[in-house]
Amino acid sequence: MISVPMCARTQQEEIAKRKSSGDLLTWEDLAKMKYTWKAAMETPRMVPPVFGGFRKTLEDIEYGGYQIPEGWQIFWVASMTHMDADIFQEPSKFNPARFENPADTPPHSYIPFGGGARICPGYEFARIETLVSIHYLVTRFAWNLCSKDDKFSRDPMPVPTQEVPIQIMPKKLDKV
């Protein structure tokens, strides 16, 4: 989420205007950040923080015309699922609205935190940390895109192809 969508910026600034100097975010503030969370979800969909992982088949399965016996190790790749146009329409487009209706996303097709019994135990903590971080980054800093190149490479984790794709400068705040 190199350039924060204007809607999320507006949402965060509205929350900041209701806060007195020095007030911290509340659970109620976090609950109102629905669009911000959708934008935050779209970021690891486009650039998953993990490459994938191994799983063991629990039964014989057929996939893509291939027979995979029970007990075999298979490797899943998050970006292959996240960029599948059959699952996510226009997968290369940054579109937080795709998360408006969770029922539109098949189970275990959005997997930056894993899924099912193996979902990351820190998922909810990460959600809260992400919302709080985005709030303060948007309300207290001005962002400038330094390069139109927003591509990532893997080594093995996602790394921007440009060293510093954004410039962040503190805003002059009326209240701290």
From TrEMBL:
<dbReference type="InterPro" id="IPR017972">
    <property type="entry name" value="Cyt_P450_CS"/>
</dbReference>
<keyword id="KW-1133">Transmembrane helix</keyword>
<dbReference type="InterPro" id="IPR002401">
    <property type="entry name" value="Cyt_P450_E_grp-I"/>
</dbReference>
<keyword id="KW-0503">Monooxygenase</keyword>
<protein>
    <recommendedName>
        <fullName>Cytochrome P450</fullName>
    </recommendedName>
</protein>
<dbReference type="GO" id="GO:0016125">
    <property type="term" value="P:sterol metabolic process"/>
</dbReference>
<dbReference type="GO" id="GO:0016020">
    <property type="term" value="C:membrane"/>
</dbReference>
<dbReference type="GO" id="GO:0004497">
    <property type="term" value="F:monooxygenase activity"/>
</dbReference>
<keyword id="KW-0479">Metal-binding</keyword>
<keyword id="KW-0408">Iron</keyword>
<keyword id="KW-0812">Transmembrane</keyword>
<dbReference type="GO" id="GO:0016705">
    <property type="term" value="F:oxidoreductase activity, acting on paired donors, with incorporation or reduction of molecular oxygen"/>
</dbReference>
<keyword id="KW-0349">Heme</keyword>
<dbReference type="GO" id="GO:0005506">
    <property type="term" value="F:iron ion binding"/>
</dbReference>
<dbReference type="InterPro" id="IPR036396">
    <property type="entry name" value="Cyt_P450_sf"/>
</dbReference>
<comment type="similarity">
    <text>Belongs to the cytochrome P450 family.</text>
</comment>
<feature type="binding site" description="axial binding residue">
    <location>
        <position position="120"/>
    </location>
    <ligand>
        <name>heme</name>
    </ligand>
</feature>
<dbReference type="GO" id="GO:0020037">
    <property type="term" value="F:heme binding"/>
</dbReference>
<keyword id="KW-0472">Membrane</keyword>
<dbReference type="InterPro" id="IPR001128">
    <property type="entry name" value="Cyt_P450"/>
</dbReference>
<dbReference type="Pfam" id="PF00067">
    <property type="entry name" value="p450"/>
</dbReference>
<keyword id="KW-0560">Oxidoreductase</keyword>
